[in-house]
Amino acid sequence: MSCVFATAAPLLVLAPAAEANPGSPYTCSESVPSKDGSSDVESCIYVENGVPRAFGGLTIKDDSLSPYNCTMVVKVIDFDAYKTGDNEEVADSGKMPCTNGRYPSPPMTVDSAKAKPGHSYGSYTEITRYNDGVARIYSPRVVL
Predict the structure, then answer these.
(1) CA-to-CA distance for 125 and 131, rounded, in angstroms?
(2) How far apart are CA 27 and CA 40, in angstroms?
């Protein structure tokens, strides 16, 4: 677990660290500053047991972001879905309150029925503050 002090109020926020299982190397984007400079964001993906798994990372740099005004979403995209006519979005973490760390934990797993051999997958991590997007960072792609 990571321990973080939120600077908007004297509050200790605990966020579990997302970790890949041993032997499942993951690949991440660079840690990229948000458009407003309030945070650094990364997006990570890897393949385990024949399916993509993903998580995002957030480092809050100032007190303009808090779990009360900010959300993070991680999504996995099948970049070859057009070949089969399937929906390109194959996994969605749902909105999570912003905290420092890597999450969701455990990493989000694409349903095996949506994991197609030979298809290219990537994830993105999106940060919003007051429902306004401040970052969307894409992971490198992996091919099943």
Answers:
(1) 15
(2) 17
